[in-house]
Amino acid sequence: MASADDTQATIKKALAGSQIAYSNLLDKFWNGVYGFQLKRTENENDAEDITIQTFSKAFDKLDTYDPKYEFKTWLIAISKNIHVDLIRKRKKSLETGENQESVKKVLDNAPSAEDVLITEQNLANLLMHIKKLKPHYQEVINLRYFKELSYADIAEELNEPINNVKVKLLRAKKLLAQDIRGKKR
Hints:
The protein has 185 residues and is mainly alpha-helical. Helices cover 72% and strands 0% of the residues. It folds into 2 domains: 4-96, Rna Polymerase Sigma Factor, Chain: A (Orthogonal Bundle); 113-181, Arc Repressor Mutant, subunit A. It has 9 helices and no strands. It is globular and about 50 Å long.
């Protein structure tokens, strides 16, 4: 397991714009945040949605992270707050029937290693692997790579914040790449 110094170095690289660094942070801390939320929510879909939102928010606000604290602790705090907000929002929606829309901003990035791997695969073989993913991951892969929508268009289509779409797509690509390589999820 990497040390706190390695994590801090990865965070610095992410702040400098390295997509690989963001991907490494997601890989390293995903299971911890997801496991924490799975215990809290006792619902796989909610745990996954909250985890996606956690990384989305954390990556958006990475410059506010204080290295005096453990990165995982910071992520868990964000995750707790998102869960509390979700409960409040659901309660309010039940009471008022309201639905909020999120503001969307876009910055599409150059293809990552996962993008290249995905586009190089045989289509029939690729579709077989895509069908193994959870439906919401299948959906973002379909919208991005087959319908060729931008992140902003996907966010609009799914009625989700753009950062959620980016994290969900990143996670979907990771799972898809692992499945293609024959690794366990």
